[in-house]
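Sample intake sheet
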Amino acid sequence: MRTVPVLVFDGDCGFCTAAVRWIERKVRPHCETVAWQQADLAGLGVARERARHEALWVTPAGTIHGGSGAVAKLLLSAGGAWTVLGAVLMVPPVSWAARGVYRLVADNRSRLPGSTASCSRRDPGTPRR
């Protein structure tokens, strides 16, 4: 059984990978980090499609927080001033705005610095929203 949470992210996305590496160095959350492409998703209780859609924070008990909720949880785990920011991100109306900002970034990550071709989350044959 895991004793620390796991942050699951898109390891094929250069922007996502760079963000996670920065977080590991600067924020120092108390967790493991794993690209969903190398993760035991079934063992984590995570659906592949959800892992492709957003970053996930999986607690040792198996609770899954996605998107801005995952970001808030990793900030809470880091301690210090990061904990305050994580707590603020969980309180409405800030949490509502955080969800919107997260989705905006995630939906446009192919346009951000460090992005790669795989940052385009759209599967071939899938119509644009």
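Comment: The helical segments are 14-27, 41-44, 48-53, 68-78, 81-89, 94-107. DSSP finds six helices and four strands in the chain.
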